[in-house]
Amino acid sequence: MVRRMGLDRETLLIAAAELADEAGLDNLTLSALAQKLGVRSPSLYNHVNGLPDLRSALAAYCMQHLVDLMRDAVIGKSGEEAILSLSASYLAFARQRPGLYEAFYKIEASDSPETTKLSEQLLNIFIRVLEPYGLGEQNTLHTIRGLRSFLHGFASLEQNSGFQMKLDLDESLHFVMRAFLKGLESGA
Amino acid sequence: MVRRMGLDRETLLIAAAELADEAGLDNLTLSALAQKLGVRSPSLYNHVNGLPDLRSALAAYCMQHLVDLMRDAVIGKSGEEAILSLSASYLAFARQRPGLYEAFYKIEASDSPETTKLSEQLLNIFIRVLEPYGLGEQNTLHTIRGLRSFLHGFASLEQNSGFQMKLDLDESLHFVMRAFLKGLESGA
DNA sequence: TATAATAACTAATGACATTAGTTTTGGCAA
DNA sequence: TTGCCAAAACTAATGTCATTAGTTATTATA
Fold this sequence. Notes:
The structure is a homodimer of 188-residue chains. Chain A is mainly α and 188 residues long. Chain A has helices at residues 9-23, 30-37, 50-73, 79-96, 98-105, 113-130, 137-159, 169-185. Chain A binds chain B through residues 105-110, 119, 138-139, 141-143, 145-146, 148-154, 156-157, 160-165, 167, 171-172, 175-176, 178-184, 186, 188, and chain B through 105-110, 119, 138-139, 141-143, 145-146, 148-154, 156-157, 160-165, 167, 171-172, 175-176, 178-184, 186, 188. The first copy, chain A, binds a DNA duplex (30 and 30 nucleotides) through residues 1-7, 29-31, 39-43, 45-47, 50-51.
């Protein structure tokens, strides 16, 4: 049952992610990808349903990375330490894989069962990590929205050179996160 | 010196912004814009230096709106009230003009003297509004990075249907902002 | 009214994505 | 080993873009 010859979806995705990281998601074209893979571009349609499907697949691929990374980041940690570790990992990933991260946040809308499932897994990590704060259901969800917004916004501004100031990025992250968590503790 | 006939840059930008709002920035093509304006697409080059220039001009146009809006939002207000008002205005704008907002954050890098100037104006509004908190220079800048990240991330997730949960968006905004500001007050 | 500048136009090119139809190839059953 | 079938590659063609070059029309002003 296993095809030995030619491409498979996995290697195609890996190459696509590399291209996106190198040149930006906008420059990930089927032409360029085909060329990188030593193939004519219509051949890619045997593995991927056009450019939209490729981008959606990249988003899922990215989310899978993020889930693994973030689970790893909180092992053996709890409370503030866990949240800070998780945040730092998130931003480090966005820095290392800018094109892949771009694919993730330019889809975001759960456009496939796979991304929906991964979204839930991400959500659950946040919920678990916030348990020690005892915020209650509603406020936990508000808090998660806050954390996701902040992390995504920070990553996005970083990518688009939105931070011009000569000021250490990690210090900014740390300062802001500590302030927010302190506000949470003091009972919002 | 004033040309009476035909297009000018202003009406072109307004039409472009409308198109972007209706169909998303990706679907703002020179073809579509020309058609909307009753003109052939090469004619647009008399007013705009290709698509990249158009998008950059839209970004500046958006920033000008934002500066005006945010200045207006804090008139007669100070402290927490001013910051909450400013945040709400920012998000309201992103909701109302999604395509225009997209142009803004997909450029962001100060790619022209105009956007650089507008960036500084935006920055100064934040600085002024944070003065009552007496955070000192460094921490003020960290805080501004936090606010910008959060607001941008929130707007971006909202636009990409990143918030699936049945949970009021304005309440999330309010909860998160209050927690953060509380954390700031308690001396980070 | 004639001229110079401006802004529209047509035509052409090249990069894409995508589709249809054809050929090649490799696993598997006889 | 041989022949078949399905998968995956290919070529050819189409249509949509952005962009450039070169041409025509129009308007303000001298």
